[in-house]
TrEMBL record:
Pfam families the record matches: AsnC_trans_reg, HTH_24
The keyword Transcription regulation appears for this protein: yes
Name by which UniProt lists this protein: Winged helix-turn-helix transcriptional regulator
GO CC annotation: cytosol
BP terms from Gene Ontology: regulation of DNA-templated transcription; response to amino acid
Coiled-coil segments: none
Organism (species): Algicella marina
Record-linked SMART domains: HTH_ASNC (SM00344)
UniProt xrefs under CDD domains: HTH_ARSR
Organism lineage string: Bacteria, Pseudomonadati, Pseudomonadota, Alphaproteobacteria, Rhodobacterales
């Protein structure tokens, strides 16, 4: 049951599934045996549940979280973009183009003062200027762009509350 972006459905899960998901969000490399012990299930039952959660698309994948400073991405910029229009063709063209920029960590269609909010990882402000000049200013339909730089990350998690 793979979903396309923008499609929503609730997958029913119980307290064991929630416990499995909570642990996996924080420790994606935990062994099945350790996971099963942690959530008080047999290894085979735990494995079946993880497979079901993967198949149903609740678990979309597993990643390694990197320290941005150690991979020379010390500058985080949030870019608010307002487009010149709201036609589906323009939105589609913008979204397709922005998805090809490797420095963009996330892009969100917004309700509010801007149409899109981008999170951009750069080496420093000079590198951001390059990203801005070579990529962001060339995005289709951009009417306005406002950038804010993060001074310090106070809270950051990928774990959703369950």
């Amino acid at each position: 049951m793979n979903q396309k972006p923008g499609e929503f459905s609730e997958v029913p899960f119980d307290s064991f599934d929630a416990a499995i998901l909570s642990v996996l969000q924080r420790e994606g490399r935990i062994s099945n045996a350790d996971l099963a012990e942690r959530v008080h299930l047999s290894a085979s039952a735990c494995h079946r549940r993880v497979q079901r959660l993967e198949k149903e698309g609740v678990i979309r994948g597993y990643v390694a979280l990197l320290d941005p400073a150690r991979v020379e991405r010390r500058a985080t910029a949030f870019v608010e973009i307002t487009l010149s229009g709201q036609a589906n063709e323009l939105l589609d063209a913008f979204e397709k183009a922005v998805s090809r920029i490797p420095d963009v960590l996330s892009c969100h269609l917004m309700a509010g003062t801007a149409d899109y909010l981008l999170k951009v990882a750069a080496r420093d402000t000079e590198d951001f200027a390059r990203i801005h000049r070579q990529h962001l200013t060339r995005l289709p339909g951009v009417a306005q762009m406002h950038t804010s730089f993060a001074l310090r990350t106070v809270v950051q998690t990928t774990a959703l509350p369950l």
